[in-house]
Amino acid sequence: MKKQVPVLKNQNYDVDISDLTYQGMGVAKIDDFPIFIENALPTENVTMKVIKVKKNFAFGKVVRINKKSADRVELVDKAYTQTGIAPLQHLKYDAQLKFKQHLIEVDFDKLKLDVEVNPTIGMDDPTHYRNKAQIPVRMVNGQLQTGFYRKHSHDLVPIEDFYIQDPEIDKAVVVVRDLLRKFRVQPYDEEHNKGVIRNIMVRRGHYSHEMMIVLITRTEKLPSSGEIVAEITKMLPEVKSIVQNVNPQRTNALMGKENKVLAGQSTIEDTLLGLKFDISASSFYQVNPVQTEKLYELATKKADLSADDTVIDAYCGIGTISLSMAKVAKMVYGVEILPEAVEDAKKNAKINGLTNVMFVSGKAEDQMAKWQEDGLKPDVITVDPPRKGLEGSLIESVVKMQPKRVVYVSCNPATLARDVKLFTEQGYHVNQPIQPVDQFPQTVHVESVTVLERQPS
Ligand SMILES: C[S@@+](CC[C@H](N)C(=O)[O-])C[C@H]1O[C@@H](n2cnc3c(N)ncnc32)[C@H](O)[C@@H]1O
């Protein structure tokens, strides 16, 4: 017999919150039927209104909090939850760190992998940490606006203070927004694939204070670009690079392939752990510089390198981990898919006077197979993949190369656990606690370092 859904849309219910999902939503159950509720915390009792009912679950909205959690802090701004900029803003920072530790434990438990997870390394000030902004530009009520999308939609909520970004970046976005308004540049209209300016990307070096502004346009032509660039340069003296990125596709991907330098250099420079890095518009660069230094220091320490060691750094980006390790190891090989990032990595090796590194552009899974066939015998392999984790074939190549240690930097505990399981089935084991480092305070993202060691056969 078909099971009855025990809740009705638009009805209010009083519920106890028993859990927090990996997306930061409170979980309540009515007759074992789960309801996911934004801005509700475990141990709380809330009156919630059911806003969407599906076959196996529903979504609810808090109407009133009847019993508050001791871990609750007041919302800084509702818009940060509405847009997903800071979905954990209502949770005390200590509790956020515990939540992230718990998320890793849950993913490993699901796969029956017995590992220990250390408390998350947090920040002293878990706000205004991001060195990069990617801000959509849209028409809202007849005016060009910058802000962020309401969750699960492309409706723009205008925002000026983004709370988790470097305030100098927030100021720059407003300056650029006002110039786009002044010169009547048409914002992108997604529905009809019309208009010019899609997004503003801003990056600011944490130590160097060098700023890059990228104007992401649908069209090759950016009207009044000369005037806009001249005014940006006058009003924002930190700007060292203004780039136009053309993305004509109807796509959710932020950037297109083509970058045109409109003023200054094609890169800005920043420092990490005393090393200098040139960063291009399209290259990946960790967004939380304070925590990145802790993360890389930890990864290098856990790699436990000696001066005779050969290292492979897979998914190396602009060579940040590679160069940190090249200071200690004999030789470091890096592989990265984005040719522009590889060019940055090569330049960065030069700037820092490191000659014991070699960078290759290509898919990590292909290049690792090639290195393995060529007989390369690394002592340590580090991997720092995107959220989807490692390809099975890459894990096979790693195992065949038999490094004594694999250092896995992960931004997704679910794919990390999946990959660790494959490694453990092939003779590698996690003998020390996994270490989460909070790269993304106020959000549900979880970064961690795991060490896999080859078991003696
Ligand atoms: C999480 S980032 C890490 C970058 C670098 N380790 C760092 O911390 O700055 C992942 C990198 O993997 C690259 N990437 C994505 N898919 C790849 C693939 N199949 N092979 C090689 N690199 C890839 C991305 O361009 C990005 O630079």
Kindly describe this structure.
The protein has about 450 residues and is of the alpha+beta class. The protein folds into three domains: about 10-70, Beta Barrel (OB fold (Dihydrolipoamide Acetyltransferase, E2P)), CATH 2.40.50; about 130-265, Beta Barrel (OB fold (Dihydrolipoamide Acetyltransferase, E2P)); about 290-455, Rossmann fold, CATH 3.40.50.150. Helix content is about 25%, strand content about 30%. The strands form four sheets. Strands 16, 17, 18, 19, 20, 21, 22 and 23 form an eight-stranded mixed sheet that branches. Strands 9-8-7-10-11-12-13 form a seven-stranded mixed sheet, covered by helices on one side. A six-stranded mixed sheet has the order 1-5-6-4-3-2, with no helix packed on it. A hairpin with a 2-residue loop joins strand 7 (about 130-140) and strand 8 (about 145-150). The radius of gyration is 24 Å and the shape is globular. Bound molecules: S-adenosylmethionine. The site of S-adenosylmethionine has 19 residues, from helix 6 and strand 17. This is 23S rRNA (Uracil-C(5))-methyltransferase RlmCD. GO terms for molecular function: rRNA (uridine-C5-)-methyltransferase activity. Its EC number is 2.1.1.189. InterPro entries: MeTrfase_TrmA_AS, MeTrfase_TrmA_CS, NA-bd_OB-fold, SAM-dependent_MTases_sf, TRAM_dom, U5_MeTrfase_fam.
State Rg.
24 Å
Task: Outline the biggest β-sheet.
Answer: 8 strands, mixed
* Total helical elements: 10
Category by helix and strand content:
alpha+beta
Strand tally: 23
Measured as a percent range, the helix fraction is: 25-40%
Q: Quick one: overall form?
A: globular
What do we call the CATH homologous superfamily of the largest domain?
Vaccinia Virus protein VP39
Instruction: Give the N-to-C terminal Cα separation.
Output: 54 Å
Number of domains: 3
Which small-molecule ligands are present, each listed once? S-adenosylmethionine
- CATH domain fold name of the largest domain: Rossmann fold
Q: If you average the pLDDT, what whole number results? A: 96
Query: CATH class of the largest domain, anyone?
Result: Alpha Beta
CATH architecture of the largest domain: 3-Layer(aba) Sandwich
Strand content: 25-35%
Low-confidence sequence ranges: none
